[in-house]
Design a protein that fits this description.
Blueprint lengths: L3 E5 L2 H23 L2 E5 L3 H10 L13 E5 L1 E3 L9 H8 L21 H16 L6 E5 L23 E6 L4 E6 L1 H6 L2 E6 L5 H8 L16 E7 L6
Parallel strand pairs: 1-9, 2-3, 2-5, 5-8, 8-9
Antiparallel strand pairs: 4-7, 6-7
Helix pairs in contact: 1-2
Length: 236
């Protein structure tokens, strides 16, 4: 399925549009099913979104008691580490909105065994969501075409029998845990955030089919699928 492209004039406009979209999606899910399951992404554009959601008028428009936050991927570092997606989201949004602590589901990265982190997180997802899909799953796009921690030429790309998997990313010399394609593709809505001139080349190559087999190109969402871009990223 091809993504519907939403191209905004600049980063600020992108973040504002994303915040409005997030609120509308949350309200619709809560009205229909009484709960909003969302998987957060790391990165600078998602961080801007989280900061925006923690401000008026957005923060008051969501019933945070019915929101459950998960993380699409995480580095295997303590939750207080500067590389932690959880720490970023906590400082940008979680500590600033009235969400119950038990509704925030971080990956238990204090475990020393990445495979154990992945296993325990999959169990948490199953316990909390009971097989329901995510209402919204947020992704960033790396310059190498990776999404979440699904990196090119890693075994994680081919994992389809578990909700999560662990992997070693050689170029960053780091262990990661990521949700797998079946989880991402089953979401009711998938958004990929792409911002900045540094992403223009990869966007051009993907949209012109100049490259193939990149992790982002292996996405096949079953439902609504969007790319939120600024003009700089869409410039080529």
């Amino acid at each position: 399925m091809k993504a519907e492209q939403k191209i905004l004039p600049d980063s600020a406009s992108l973040i504002n549009a994303a915040a409005e979209h997030f609120v509308a999606t949350a309200r619709a899910a809560i009205a229909k099913r009484g709960v909003f399951y969302v998987a957060l992404a790391g990165g600078s554009t998602p961080k801007g979104l989280y900061q925006k959601l923690a401000t008026s008028p957005f923060v008051e428009q969501i019933d945070w008691s019915r929101v459950h936050l998960f993380f699409g991927d995480e580095r295997c570092v303590p939750p207080t580490h500067d590389d932690s997606n959880f720490k970023m989201a906590r400082q940008a949004m979680i500590d600033l909105v009235p969400i119950p602590a038990e509704n925030v589901h971080r990956m238990p990265t204090e475990s020393n065994e990445p495979a154990d982190v992945a296993k325990r997180y999959a169990e948490t997802m199953q316990e909390v969501m009971n097989g329901a899909p995510f209402d919204l799953l947020l992704l960033g796009l790396g310059p190498d075409g990776h999404i979440a921690s699904l990196f090119p030429e890693t075994p994680a790309l081919d994992v389809t029998d578990t909700l999560t998997t662990s992997l070693y990313v050689e170029k960053f010399d780091s262990w990661r845990v990521t949700m797998t394609y079946p989880v991402i593709n089953a979401a009711r809505q998938v958004i990929v955030f792409i911002a900045g001139e540094a992403k223009a080349e990869i966007v051009r190559d993907i949209t012109a089919d100049a490259v193939s087999g990149l992790p982002v190109q292996r996405l096949a969402p079953e439902n609504d699928y969007y790319w939120f871009m600024d003009k700089a990223a869409a410039g080529q």
